[in-house]
Amino acid sequence: MSGNRLSDDDKSETNYNQNLEKLNGLNLQEENEVSEQDKCTPTLDYLQSIVEELYLFNKNSLENNTEKVSYNKEILNEKVKHVLTLMKTNEEAAVAENKAQYFFLLGKTWSVTQPVNEECINVLSKAVKLNPTHLDAWNSLGECLVHLKRFSEAKYCFLASLKHGKCKVILRNLSIIMREAQLLTSENVKENLNAGIEYAKEAVELDTNDGESWAILGNAYLSLFFRRQEDKLLRQSINSFEKALKDPIASKNADLHFNRGVALKYGEIYTDALLSFEQASILDPMWTTAKETLEDLIKYLTSTQTLYQRKGQVKSKRLQQMTESLNSSFLGLYNNKIKTMKGHVMLEHIPLSKLQTGFNANKVVCGRVVCVVYNQEPVPYTFCLVDKDLSCIVVSVYNLAQGRGPIIGDAVAIPEPYLTNIDAKYIKQTFQYPSIRVNLPLTMVVNKKNVSAECVSQPQFLSKQF
């Protein structure tokens, strides 16, 4: 999900009403109308069946992406015209049975065509005006407004429907819209992302076997992880994706596998990440992003391993010259006691060869950058570090602004490094190397100086819209 920034503050009832006025001057009626659920509606039942057939055809056409897409689109347009003709022919009888339901079905028919037109918005607006408790109509109206990038109005529709009941589809859509870039500001980003998680949780609670709800929850956790960089959020995201895969229907969704791959990649669980991207490309062969992401990750892992094994392809004599000048002064502020929650502590400067797997508390390492690994994506920024003993290690830095990373020859000190031994496999390839993961670039010292705040940037998780 991506887009331009717009201010949004729909918290107050005043703002809700303003958004509502945009929907063709819609004013909701009081819920005092007699329920029409028990009425006999043969015409509407017939129209609903043909609209459902239309939706099924469209869904199958989108999922089975082949060279026949343009041909299927022509057939779809003909089917839409046919259904609209039937709608017009049966309008009088259908309106007599249930006017709100007729406008809902008419709006659903229009919504199949892309881009969505104003006629679609108009008839769906009439449907919710006539029956404010019609959750499906609210949802369809909200989704159509999303396609028109009228995100504030779409958000209002989803929220307004909650006054009349809850359904998992609307809760899922609310979770997605809360992450929409155009609705995020510096003031509400944390609140919106947390709300997105809560809405997705509610959807899961309504049906714990629905894989799509679990997938949306995984996306919500992943979005917040990119903002807060808490390992717990990443684990929750991955766990949600795993539960989504248990649903046979959801497991056929390429987006689910791709987003799971993104989470696994950030967790440096590379074997599973590669398999997820592969599965996404298999399920949706025409989605080039999935295939390219898989290929880029393979290239990244291959290059990283090769450069680590060859110490940046720098000759031994040159390595000696680069590292012989390293001394305690290059530790910068870590050459003195630093303030921690346990008081003032002096970090022990140790060689790279003495690092233990996991968190190395009260330790600091220092070395020279001997190479920078090319990566199609800016995150992570990866380089190889060689210390005075000529030991080499890979360093992956997350949340670093593009173009702000250390370059070849820079001296880098890393406090309390977290060491991971990468061991990934894909087909006949194996990738193995030790790696230090740095989530907070501000903790690094480069050429005796602290990394400045302008060098930090948070990546953004972009998922497909509904």
Write the layout of secondary structure elements.
Layout (H helix, E strand, L loop, with lengths): L12 H10 L19 H22 L5 H21 L1 H7 L1 H13 L6 H13 L4 H13 L3 H11 L6 H10 L11 H18 L4 H18 L2 H14 L9 H13 L3 H14 L4 H22 L6 H8 L14 E3 L2 E3 L2 E2 L8 E2 L3 E11 L7 E6 L5 E6 L13 E5 L2 E9 L2 E10 L6 E2 L2 E2 L16
Parallel strand pairs: 3-5, 7-10
Antiparallel strand pairs: 1-2, 4-9, 5-6, 5-8, 6-7, 8-11, 9-10, 11-12
Features:
466 residues; alpha+beta; Serine Threonine Protein Phosphatase 5, Tetratricopeptide repeat; OB fold (Dihydrolipoamide Acetyltransferase, E2P); two-stranded antiparallel sheet; 16 helices; 12 strands; disordered N terminus
Structure report:
- It is a single chain.
- The protein contains 16 helices and 12 strands.
- The strands form 2 sheets. Strands 3, 4, 5, 6, 7, 8, 9, 10, 11 and 12 form a 10-stranded mixed β-sheet that branches. It has a two-stranded antiparallel ribbon with strand order 1-2.
- The protein has 2 domains: 41-300, Serine Threonine Protein Phosphatase 5, Tetratricopeptide repeat (Alpha Horseshoe); 312-455, OB fold (Dihydrolipoamide Acetyltransferase, E2P) (Beta Barrel).
- It is an alpha+beta fold.
- Helix 2 (42-63) packs antiparallel against helix 3, helix 2 runs parallel beside helix 5 and helix 7 (135-147) packs parallel to helix 9 (168-177).
- A hairpin with a 2-residue loop joins strand 11 and strand 12.
- The longest helix has 22 residues, at 42-63.
- Keywords: Repeat, TPR repeat.
- InterPro entries: TPR-like_helical_dom_sf, TPR_rpt, TTC5_OB, TTC5_OB_sf, Ycf3.
- Residues 347-458 form the Tetratricopeptide repeat protein 5 OB fold domain.
